[in-house]
Structures are given as C-alpha cells and as structure tokens.
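quick one if you have a minute, typing this from the bus. below you get a single protein, a line of residues and a line of whole numbers that encode the local backbone shape. could you go over both lines and see whether the tokens make sense for that sequence. anything you notice is useful, everything is just below.
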Amino acid sequence: MSEKVLIVDDQFGIRVLLKEVFEKDGYETYDASNGKLALELIEEKQPDLILLDMKIPGMDGLEILREIRNRDLNVNVIMMTAYGELEMINEAKKLGAIAHFAKPFDIDEVRRKIRTFFDS
C-alpha cells in the first residue's frame, strides 16, 4: 500500500501541482481547500502526512493543527507558509508540526523532504 499524503491549501494551483508531483512519485494523494474538508479527509482517509498551508480562509493552519491534536489524530504535519510568519511556525512546532516550507518553495526540495520523511 502506498503512503497517503493530504495537501491542504486554498490555492488551486498549488494543490494541483503538489498532487501531480506526489502521484508521479507513487504516493496516494488527496487535497482540500479548507479546514472543514481537511478534517473530514483526515478522519476518512487517515493520511500518513499532511502538507498544511498556514493561511486558509475560515480556519487557518494553526486552528486545523490544534483540531488534529485535540482529536488525538496520529498524523504528521508539515506546514507551508509565506515568508515572515516565524511566530506562527514556532507555534506550529509546539503543536507537533515536524517541518515547514516557505512559499514560494522549490518543488525538488519538497520532494526530497517528503521522500526522506517516508524513508526514515
């Protein structure tokens, strides 16, 4: 069975790009444009890893991460964030995020980190 990755970002282009790249790399991928759908997919699909954008309308990445922890869901989270959100990244790490990427990101760097995560 392939590893499952959930991509949570309100930007359609980012979701499509990451989904396409990770599917080519052999991962089973899902995507969500908002927190409500993300939480539903986490419960339903039980992903191994979530790429979670920090800024999402309605429910930001930290709120989603808090909800994941409150529900005691066992899933690893990597945050995606724009430059200058260091305080939010530190909060995400306290909530158990294992890493973060700054946007715009280098897709090859993202692929290497994901591969390293699953290989460890």
